[in-house]
Write a structure and sequence with these properties.
This protein is α+β, with helices and mostly antiparallel strands. It has a domain of 150 residues: NADH Oxidase, CATH 3.40.109. It is 43% helix and 13% strand. It contains 10 helices and 4 strands, in the order H-H-E-H-H-E-H-H-H-E-H-E-H-H. A 4-stranded antiparallel sheet has the order 1-2-4-3, with helices on both faces. Helix 2 packs across helix 7 and helix 5 packs antiparallel against helix 6. The structure holds flavin mononucleotide. Flavin mononucleotide binds next to strand 3.
Amino acid sequence: MDFDDIVRTRRSVHQYTDEPIDQETLEAIFETASLAPSGYNLQPWEFLVIGEEKAKANLAEVAYGQEHVTDAAVAVVILGTTDLTAHADAVFDDWLAKEYIPDEEVKTALLENVEAMNEMPEDERRIWTTRSSALAAMTLIYAAWDHGVASCPMEGFDPAGLVETFEIPDGYEPVMLVTLGYPAEDASDIENTRKGRRPVDEFVHYESFEPAPKTSLEVPGEDGD
Ligand SMILES: Cc1cc2nc3c(=O)[nH]c(=O)nc-3n(C[C@H](O)[C@H](O)[C@H](O)COP(=O)(O)O)c2cc1C
């Protein structure tokens, strides 16, 4: 599929077939997701893949009983480290090797900068990790759909319950859940109908920002009659 098709045909899917996703496909999807951009290329995300029935049931419980968690082949818990330094050394070594930075001195300065940023209050580090990890989640969603694997991003879960149930160590923000599975062919039209979007001229602001009057939603590419 070309990118425009991927974006236009993707839906948040709640009904899946029983077909499992083979490991090779999952790994191809995750590899594409790894190409998501991140602040300083620090790649703060971790993907916890939940596929066993019992574990999916536990996840559904902390997701307020949302059934698509158990119906999907797997659910991916997107976690984000709140430690900005977690992968900094490897990232700057890579920059050095590729001559993106000239020498060890610059690498040391970059590391010091990241260490200084890591002194931010926890709330700010949680926002920091959410930015990049959410982009990884979006990349995962598009990569999956390119393989015919549908998904649903989810914020409807109890983060504290998730951390407890899956014994997530301190220092990781539960950013989002993403269900993955092949879409049910008999999914209702409601599931497939494109939900409206705010029109471009309502949310795009050139040069200065002033909230625009609210207009009705539309579906891009359709004239709305
Ligand atoms: C951050 C985020 C959180 C969401 N949380 C949930 C959720 O908890 N449960 C759910 O069924 N859908 C959830 N959705 C899916 C949205 O309802 C869906 O993206 C939106 O209605 C637009 O539909 P579409 O994705 O099919 O275009 C979430 C989407 C996003 C981006």
